[in-house]
Amino acid sequence: MIMHNATEVRNRWSEYSDRVIREKPLFIKKTREYLFLSSFEQLDIILEAYGFTAKQYTETDGSVTLSLNEIDLIENGDTETNARLAMGRAILDYAEEYFNEFRFWNAAPNRKKHLPYILKALIINDAKTLGDMLVCQVGNN
C-alpha cells in the first residue's frame, strides 16, 4: 500500500515518522486531501536539480551586481565575494518571508513557481553557502 490513512498515521505517529526518517517518504490520505511526508535529507535529494543562477555585471565603479534568474532579486557588492554574500542573504530573507507569509506569496501566479527554490534555501539555511553556490554568467551592461 502506497497511500496511508491519516488517522492510522496519527495514531502510530512515532512508528511512521521513524519509517520516514530511516526508510522512505510517505504518502498520506486525509479525506479528499493528499499529503507527502519526507525527511529534510530526502527533500534535499528531491530538490537537487534546483540551483541558483545569476547574471553578473561589473559596474563602472568596479562593483559587482548580481541579478538572480530564478527569483527577482538584485544585489550589489564592492567585490564579487561580497555581492554573492549579499545575494545569499537576500535569497534567505526572501525564503523566510515567503514561507512565513505562504498563503499570500504562493497565491501570486508569478511567485508560485518559487516554491522549490524557497524550500532549497530554507534547507540550506546559510547565506554564505547560498552565495557560494550561485552559478554566474557574465551579463551585458
What would you note in describing this structure?
The chain has 141 residues and is of the alpha/beta class. It folds into two domains: 3-38, YefM-like fold; 47-138, 2-Layer Sandwich (Double Stranded RNA Binding Domain), CATH 3.30.160. The chain is 47% helix and 23% strand. The chain has helices at 6-11, 13-22, 40-46, 80-100, 102-107, 115-124, 127-132; strands spanning 3-5, 26-30, 33-37, 53-58, 64-68, 74-77, 135-138. The strands form two sheets. The chain has a four-stranded mixed β-sheet with strand order 6-5-4-7, covered by helices on one side. Strands 1-2-3 form a three-stranded mixed β-sheet. A hairpin with a 2-residue loop joins β2 and β3 (33-37). α4 (80-100) crosses α6. The termini are far apart.
* Count of discrete structural domains: 2
Query: How much strand?
Result: 15-25%
**Extended strand count:** 7
N-to-C CA distance: 56 Å
Assign the CATH topology of the largest domain. Double Stranded RNA Binding Domain
Radius of gyration: 19 Å
